[in-house]
C-alpha cells in the first residue's frame, strides 16, 4: 500500500547492486537551494546541509531502520484518517513492508547526511500481501505496483515523497513499465493526485475481526514521461 502508508510485498528476485548507490541523487528543497536564482534579500539558512538528502537504492541492512520509520509514519500521519484499532490491526496482519521488495531491486530510500532514513518507496512486479484482504479484488494485483511509500513524520514537507516517486517512475520506465498501479491509504491520496495518478475505485481491506480499512486504488500512465525521456 502506498502514500505515507503501509504495504507488504511478496516474492524476491536478485539483490540490488550496491554499486548503484554511486548514482544516488542529491536533493535540496527548492526554496533553500544555493544562491543561483534567489530573489534579492533572500536569507539562506546557516546550515543548508541540514536540508539535504539523497535518494538511493535500499539495501538489506536498511530494513530495520526502514520498518521503524514506516511504523512511525503510519501511526502519526495515518492517525488523522484511521482509528488506533484500524492501524494496529493493519500493522499486525500485514505490516509495513515485506523484505522481498528490497531484494527485488526497485525500492529506494531518502537518506540525510547523517545516514538517517527519512523516507522509502518503490515498485514491484510481485503481488502485494495485502491483496488477500481485498477479497475479489485480489486478481487486480498481477500488475506493476507502487509499494510502501512512507515519509518520517519529522521530515514531511521537504519534497521527499515526490522525489522518491519521481525516482520510482523513472526506474519503472527503464524496465519497460508503461503503467503503474497503487493502493493508497486515505492519507496518501492527495499526494498521488498531485502526481497525476487517477482514481480507479474506492475499496477497503477486511480483517478477520470485521475491522475495515479504507483505501483507494489508483493508476498512472507513464507515456508522457517516456516521451520526455526519449
TrEMBL record:
Nucleotide-binding keyword on record: no
Any coiled-coil regions, as ranges: none
PROSITE patterns linked to this entry: GNAT
One term of GO molecular function: acyltransferase activity, transferring groups other than amino-acyl groups
Chain intervals for the UniProt region annotation (Disordered): 1-40
Biased composition, class Basic and acidic residues, residue ranges: 17-28
Keyword list, A-Z: Acyltransferase, Transferase
Residue ranges constituting the N-acetyltransferase domain according to the UniProt record: 53-223
SUPFAM superfamilies: Acyl-CoA N-acyltransferases (Nat) (SSF55729)
InterPro entries: Acyl_CoA_acyltransferase (IPR016181), Bact_Acetyltransf (IPR050832), GNAT_dom (IPR000182)
Domain of life according to the entry: Bacteria
Keyword Transferase included in the entry's annotation: yes
Protein's UniProt name: N-acetyltransferase domain-containing protein
Amino acid at each position: 500500500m502506498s502514500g505515507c502508508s503501509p504495504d507488504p510485498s511478496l516474492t524476491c528476485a536478485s539483490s540490488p547492486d550496491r554499486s548503484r548507490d554511486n548514482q544516488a541523487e542529491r536533493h535540496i528543497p527548492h526554496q533553500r537551494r544555493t544562491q543561483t536564482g534567489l530573489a534579492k534579500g533572500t536569507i539562506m539558512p546557516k546550515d543548508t546541509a541540514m536540508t539535504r538528502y539523497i535518494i538511493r537504492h535500499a539495501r538489506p541492512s536498511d530494513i530495520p531502520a526502514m520498518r521503524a520509520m514506516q511504523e512511525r509514519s503510519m501511526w502519526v500521519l495515518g492517525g488523522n484518517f484511521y482509528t488506533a484499532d484500524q492501524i494496529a490491526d493493519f500493522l499486525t496482519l500485514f505490516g509495513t513492508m515485506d523484505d522481498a521488495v528490497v531484494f527485488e531491486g526497485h525500492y529506494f530510500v531518502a537518506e540525510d547526511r547523517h545516514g538517517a532514513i527519512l523516507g522509502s518507496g518503490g515498485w514491484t512486479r510481485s503481488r502485494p500481501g495485502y491483496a488477500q484482504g481485498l477479497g475479489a479484488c485480489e486478481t487486480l494485483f498481477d500488475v506493476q505496483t507502487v509499494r510502501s511509500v512512507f515519509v518520517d513524520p519529522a521530515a514531511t514537507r521537504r519534497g521527499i515523497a515526490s522525489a522518491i516517486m519521481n525516482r520510482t517512475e523513472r526506474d519503472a520506465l527503464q524496465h519497460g513499465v508503461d503503467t503503474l498501479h497503487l493502493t493508497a491509504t486515505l492519507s496518501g491520496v492527495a499526494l498521488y493526485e498531485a502526481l497525476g495518478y487517477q482514481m480507479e475505485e474506492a475499496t477497503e481491506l477486511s480483517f478477520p475481526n470485521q475491522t475495515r480499512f479504507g483505501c483507494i486504488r489508483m493508476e498512472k500512465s507513464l507515456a508522457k514521461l517516456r516521451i520526455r525521456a526519449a
